[in-house]
Amino acid sequence: MANSVTGRDLLDRLWQRGCAFFGTRTAIMGGAMSWVSERHLVAAISNAGGFGVIACGAMPPHLLEAEIAGTKALTNQPFGVNLITMHPQLEQLVDICVAAKVGHVVLAGGLPPKWAIERIKASGAKVICFTPALSLAKKFVRSGVDALVIEGMEAGGHIGPVSTAVLAQEILPEVREVPVFVAGGIGRGEAIAMYLELGASGVQLGTRFVCATESIAHPKFKQAFIRASARDAMPSVQLDPRFPVIPVRALQNQGTRRFMETQAEIVARFNRGEVEKDAAILEIEHFWAGALRRAVIDGDVENGSLMAGQSVGMVTREQPTAEIIEELVNQAAAALTSRLALNAVPTPQPLRA
Ligand SMILES: Cc1cc2nc3c(=O)[nH]c(=O)nc-3n(C[C@H](O)[C@H](O)[C@H](O)COP(=O)(O)O)c2cc1C
User: Which InterPro entries does this UniProt record tie to the protein (predicted)?
Assistant: First the structure.
């Protein structure tokens, strides 16, 4: 008996909620990556049917305004903006998103302030937050957050301690009120199908898009990604328990070794009473902001930060964004097609005597 439902139909059904949430053809978010996720990559992802997200990072408000306008000039498809909540000018950044009628704002990098959630929602835009645990997910839902991203420790950049697979099992079955998007370690469409089947509304990928043709990342940065395998993307190490370091997953180089030395220097200055604790913590955090730009923009792959997720091993060449998304969609659809085929296997008939 022929099964008229295809894997692609099933995929469209599984991520229907995510697609409706973004107004896109696929529920693949391009995870915001500081310095990488600017107008060209963001527009390319949105034009290819995904959901591009501008990484505001440490940008001052006038640059964010220009980036939003520049992205609008390259796409008429929906895209979002990712704001880091500890940015000192968060309020102006939120106002710029509201004034530019950005449809979706992702609040990353710590607990989002209540006023920010309220101001974005009052403008009619959707608020998306990262949640590291189920308890916080429930709290975000209560405070009116429209969607959640759960990001496991396989991801590139700043990471939490729990793997994507465990977060997905803990949170997806329990949070039905809002769409939940899964991030961290996704390199192929089969994994997308798996998380959708677990209850995700979509996924967010960062590392996989770094080597997109449209990505402005320096050729040496892309080359480092293409050469690397999963085990090269390691979390940074905290030197002193008094100075917590949110681990950053990056390819190992002189920069990661220098981070250890920098921590040691800052801790020594603190011990000598030359720097306040809060200032010392900020200084340690600040190290990576400058270092990422050096690697992504200047191509200093030795001293800069090569933030990358474990899925870097699945980045094998430079490819147009549309091709990456098409490949992911085809892999997810093929995985679901084979599930349908398995289900369609006729039940064995009892042998006649
Ligand atoms: C180079 C790089 C820079 C990143 N910068 C940011 C950022 O500025 N803000 C943010 O919320 N996430 C940032 N991320 C995380 C991504 O948005 C995304 O969640 C992550 O890359 C997903 O995991 P994956 O790399 O395994 O696909 C960054 C990731 C990378 C690789």
Answer: Aldolase_TIM, NMO
Rounded to whole angstroms, the maximal C-alpha distance in the chain is 92
Q: What is the pTM (predicted TM-score) of this model?
A: 0.93
Nearby residues of 188 by Cβ (< 8 Å), 6 or more positions away:
314, 328, 331
Residue of minimum CA distance from atom 7 in ligand 1: 33
Instruction: Give the CA distances from residue 248 to residues 24, 67, 284, 308, in Å, rounded to whole numbers and listed in that order.
Output: 31, 26, 12, 9
Computed over every residue of the chain, the mean pLDDT equals 95
Please provide the CATH number assigned to the domain covering 7-216+315-338: 3.20.20.70
Apex 310 CA angle, 335 and 232, nearest 5? 140
Ligand 1 lined by 204 (C-beta under 6 Å): yes
Contact 50, 325 (CB under 8 A): yes
Q: Is 183 in the pocket of ligand 1 (CB under 6 A)?
A: yes
Among 309, 253, 327, residue whose Cα is nearest residue 31: 309
What's the 215 CA to ligand 1 centre distance in angstroms? 14
The answer to whether residue 349 scores a pLDDT higher than 90 is: no
For the stretch 204-217, pLDDT in tens is 999 999 999 999 99
